[in-house]
Amino acid sequence: MITTDNRVGLNLKEIALMLGVSTATPSTWKRRWTPDSDHPFPRPTAKLALWIRRRNDTMGWSRPFLCYDRDDIIEWHDGLREAQRERRSASMRESWRSRPGMPVHPSRAFAIVEHPLDEIRKLRAEVNGLKVLVNRGPVNEEPF
User: Fold this and answer.
1) pLDDT > 90: percent of the chain
2) Are residues 112 and 74 in the same domain?
3) pLDDT per residue as tens digits for the range 26-55
4) Is pLDDT of 18 > 70?
5) Which residue segment(s) compose the domain that 75 sits in?
């Protein structure tokens, strides 16, 4: 594992180890919490490449990687739970909002129907009719 100088910052793997999460999690956070989001992932403090010994015993530069300030990451992570809750709430409000051509929220579905029990019985009769077509035989009536 490449470790960076503590004066420069932490790379994504070190952030994962510090916070006790999967090594892929900081990359996901960086991708999801973009600079235009309400809780943007901290900006990198440096881009480093190290002079390393490669597998074939030759020396060369490592792939460049981004380094982040430890304090910024800790502060950002402390506010993450609230930001996730807000994001979920906003997505739930948006997904069930009535829009033309969109399905109605299940809790509002029967408020539109005048006689929901009659509608359920009609739907059950249609389903039984489809069962007859599929099974090619009579269907036992299910009491409601």
Assistant:
1) 20
2) no
3) 999 999 888 888 889 999 988 888 888 888
4) yes
5) 12-95
Q: Do 16 and 81 belong together in one domain?
A: yes
Q: In this structure, is residue 120 part of a structural domain?
A: yes
Amino acid letter for position 85: R
Residues 124, 83: one domain? no
Is 6 inside a domain boundary?
no
Mean pLDDT confidence for 68-97: 80
Cα separation, 16 vs 27, whole angstroms: 9
Q: Residues with Cβ < 8 Å from 26, sequence gap 6 or more?
A: 12, 13, 15, 16, 19
Enclosing H/E stretch for 106: helix 106-112
**With 0-12 CB in 10 A as exposed, 13-18 as middle and 19+ as buried, what is 93?**
exposed
